[in-house]
């Protein structure tokens, strides 16, 4: 609430007066801190103060603060708090708040309660320290608890929480000061107006964030559970798998020492999720590394003095040259270079096969084209030529990095291992990547969490967890409530789900999007189809009338060559774009644009999909595989949207195909 300077002073005086009358024998630090917090309750905040505060009893928080930024349990003290004492106090706080729910039945998980120790401020030298299992906040930094950019609860949600906290927190006095300028007859009106304003603002600016404080009871159960071995979370798009991982990482970080790792195959995702994690858990954010697998490997190999030369362009050239040598023999079977590239990348190298014998007998999961021994010999020759071409240029590819990392890790494990590793979008990782992460995590409770959805695999090939020797029996969780997509979007995405059979990562039947519970009504999907010449007008018309700001919209395509076309088109129309690989989740006015491989795991208010039909000409044998893969990619593209999807299909066959 915006108050004049004069009103602010009056509120502060009123706060001090109220505090002195309620708690006459307070020490000066709690008096100052609570006075400052109380003065803020004229906005959208509620303060609960331990009734026996003057006795300085040690095993309960001194106060609770509830505001749009969440629920805070506070210890206010001049002294150093022993770790064990802090744990006892905060555990008490979490237990007391455990019963709080919102209007939709979501609960407040232990991992949502902020643990704060407020100490004396000594001005410039002291700042908020956020490295332990709690925040250490000097009194001069109390504004940190009210930062606008961290707000994620509406006024109504704050009121609902505060009402329940009032009932649950016996032994705490609820203190509040009135806004000085609100006369009784206008107070109700003022409230209604600011309520509406607050709700609209919250819905528009940060539509996705109430998960910072509220989880579905099933999500919370997974956050709170201990697993005595590797565990797995699956569930269709938008069911909050990543949200659960972030809460779990906060809980595990608070209860452990040493680093934790969040990793994935997707290059741009860790940065986006790191930003979410900083909002959720500033106190442990520095202990959790968010790195995509190859960035982790590069750092690791460098630390061991093993620099690797990886260049995407060089790798592509090496493969193209190898293809030139072997295409005459393989083209008959399947003309697309992409198909054979996937065979080498995802089957031979992705499974870590090092001899022809191994290749002969290895499962080729997800690959529909049957290969007999003679065919496999041809593929193996292609692989060997490719390896030779890489070696000629002194290059490694991304699979080599995994293999080198694995060798290095076997030679000498990390000096300080990870307390926990979470692997997101696991369905697209290679088998060798999975094995490496298994080795990195080591054995022990809660060490490895695999998160993914077989229905959202956007790369060819596949594996089962049993192939990697990772046992998750009894430690598999499935989420089934979709929180992201409004019903109109969800129904459209379900319609795309042509292959309603999906393999779970364990090989059993998976849960598909068609089976999820939708909780958000509304949403809209529009389709357009036409020849390439009409695409610019159709797309630009749609962009001119988007129901969401362009900064919260993504344009998604399925091939790099399509990206080039769309980028050019938008550039010529003067529309500013940001490539998805550079997207960090930070607010930005530009239209995000990229292939589905870069869009996975992300979400936007609106999505424009441009699909160029006729670009692929797979052989009939590979067509089924390609269709299944494309269906999964479509599903990923559509489910990135919360409110709105525009689906543009360019029907003309395009010139120039891969291969
Ligand atoms: N408990 C919750 N309360 C409110 N919103 C939630 C909750 N859980 C998830 N969401 C919303 O749903 C969105 C999707 O969550 P998340 O990204 O974790 O899903 P996912 O299962 O990892 O999705 P995908 O597999 O499609 O990448 C979140 O950004 C969040 O806005």
User: With helices defined by DSSP (H or I, 4 residues minimum), what is the helix count?
Assistant: 20
- Mean pLDDT, to the nearest integer, reads 88
| Percent of residues in helices | 40-55%
Biggest sheet features: 6 strands, mixed
Find the structural class using helix and strand composition.
Answer: alpha/beta
Number of domains: 4
Radius of gyration: 28 Å
Ligand kinds = adenosine-5'-triphosphate
Number of strands: 20
Spatial order of strands in the largest sheet: 5-4-3-2-1-6
Describe this structure in words.
With 659 residues, this protein is an alpha/beta fold. The chain has 20 helices and 20 strands. The protein has helices at 5-22, 28-39, 83-97, 155-168, 184-205, 217-224, 241-254, 269-280, 293-303, 312-330, 337-348, 356-361, 373-392, 398-411, 431-441, 487-496, 535-544, 560-572, 596-599, 620-638; strands at residues 45-50, 63-67, 70-76, 114-119, 135-138, 172-175, 231-234, 260-264, 288-290, 420-424, 448-452, 476-478, 481-482, 517-518, 524-530, 553-557, 577-579, 591-595, 604-612, 641-650. The protein has a six-stranded mixed β-sheet, with helices on both faces. A six-stranded parallel β-sheet has the order 9-8-10-11-7-12, with helices on both faces. The chain has a six-stranded parallel β-sheet with strand order 15-20-19-16-18-17, with helices on both faces. Helix 20 links the parallel strand 19 and strand 20. 43% of the residues are buried. The model is unreliable at 123-131 and 183-207 (pLDDT under 50).
